[in-house]
Structure formats: C-alpha cells, structure tokens
Amino acid sequence: MIIFLSELQKDHLNLLHQHSIQVLVDFCKLTIDYLNNGMNEKKCAIAAEKLDVLVSVVQNLIHALAYLIVEGCKHNLSEPNFRSSLALAGFSEEQQQVLVKLHNAKKAEISGAINLLQQKDPSYLDLTWRFEVQVASKSSQEEIKPMVVMDFVLTTPKNFGQSDDFAHITSKQKNSLPCSSIVSSIQDAKTASQCQHIINHILLQSDLSNLVHLTNRLEEALKESKSQHIRKVQRAL
What is the pLDDT of residue 213? Predict the structure, then answer.
C-alpha cells in the first residue's frame, strides 16, 4: 500500500524541500513532540521566525508530517512501501532516510494507540475456577455430579469518543487538518490504556464432559492458528 497525499498536503511539505536536512530533523523533533503532547505554540513561533514564515505554515507542515507517520503506522506499511510514499511526496533519498527513522521510532507506540482506539471487544485479563460436586439429592441417594464453575475476568476500554470520531476522521484522508484530531485521539488512547478500563466478570458453569470437549476444541484451534496457512493470512493482513 502507498500513501497518496493531497496537493494541499504536498504544498505544506514543500517548505522542507527548500531547506537543509537539519531543518527536516528539527521538524521531525517538533512532530514527535506534537504526537506526544500536542501542538507547542512557542516552539512553532520560534521555528517560524527562523524560517521567516507564518506560524500557520509551520503548524500545517507538522500536521502533514504527522499524517504521514500516523497513516504509515495505521496501515503497518513496510519500509519499501513507506519509502515509495515519501518518494511520491517529493522527498529525496537523504530525506527519506530521516523520515524512515522517525517512522520506525514511533511505529510501535502509535500502532498500539490506534489499535486501542479501534478496540471494541473485551480483552482477557484473568480466570478463576472452582470445582463443585453434588454428592446426593432427595431423588437419588447415590448421584454424583461434578461441575466446574469459572469466572472469566475481561477488560474493556472506556468509550472516550474513539468509535464515531475516529471513523469520521480517517474517512477524510485527503485533508490535512483532521490530523490534529487524530493526534488528540491518540493521546486520549495512551491515557485510557493506563487507567480507563471497565472490568467485567463472566460466570460459566460446565460439567466435565462439556469442559473436556471445549478444551479439545480450543487446543485444535490453537494448533490451527500456528499452521502455515494461517501465518500466510496474518502476514497478508
């Protein structure tokens, strides 16, 4: 997959083609700070003064760079595909090397945040179980019914606005402005990954025969997940 930029985004990035590699390195640092903490007005003003441009020009450039990095992480682009995207955006070989380093440095962190933003299903946290046996009843003095009671502990991230907003943002890929909203959502996701989770307890009771059957099916599924066919599907995705 290749990232295609709009003409407006290319115009924003054009400033980098007019200056040295050090300017690109400085903007990479500004972009990392933007992804972590949001737009720093003071740093943008200093950069604008050095380059003799408007502050809005610097901010739009940072937005465009952040868009490239976020899109590359979101689609898990390989280095060749990311380099091709940069080449289409007009970056030289030397500039591509700098941006590839930036992409690799932030890839794991941003991908984790984006996955959390898109996460809707509960995640496994813990399991506790209890073995119960009914040794007798009024209807049958010799009846024995062994049962296993399991408590599955699941976690679900709290809804902090990611579902609709994030889908709405990512649908506007030809406009550079929504990148600020994407970064804001990523920052919220980092916070949510630390402290905002809903804990759910799912109780399940099963007799031994059904439990053995369930265990066997899960073991079969686990073996199948390690098969060569499934690995090819995972690599494709």
Answer: 92
pLDDT digits (tens, 9 = 90+) for 125-166: 888 989 888 776 676 666 677 889 999 898 876 654 443 433
For the chain, give the secondary structure using H, E and C.
CCCCCCHHHHHHHHHHHCCCHHHHHHHHHHHHHHHHHCCCHHHHHHHHHHHCCCHHHHHHHHHHHHHHHHHHHHCCCCHHHHHHHHHHCCCCHHHHHHHHHHHHHHHHHHHHHHHHHHCCCCEEEEEEEEEEEECCCCCCCCCCEEEEEEEEEEEEECCCCHHHHHHHHHCCCCCCCCHHHHHHHHHHHHHHHHHCEEEEEEEEEEEHHHHHHHHHHHHHHHHHHCCHHHHHHHHHC
For 6, 160, 188, the CA distances from 176, given in Å and listed in that order, are: 8, 23, 20
Q: For 166-210, what is each residue's pLDDT tens digit? A: 333 333 333 333 444 445 555 555 554 444 567 888 998 888 889
- Bridging pattern class, strands 145-157 and 197-207: antiparallel
Residue 181 in tokens: 């909203």
Sign of CA dihedral 71, 72, 74, 80: positive
Q: Phi and psi for 146 in degrees, rounded to 5?
A: -75, 135
| pLDDT (0 to 100) of residue 237 | 58
Q: Is 189 within 8 Å of 117 (Cβ atoms)?
A: yes
Q: Length of the chain, please?
A: 237
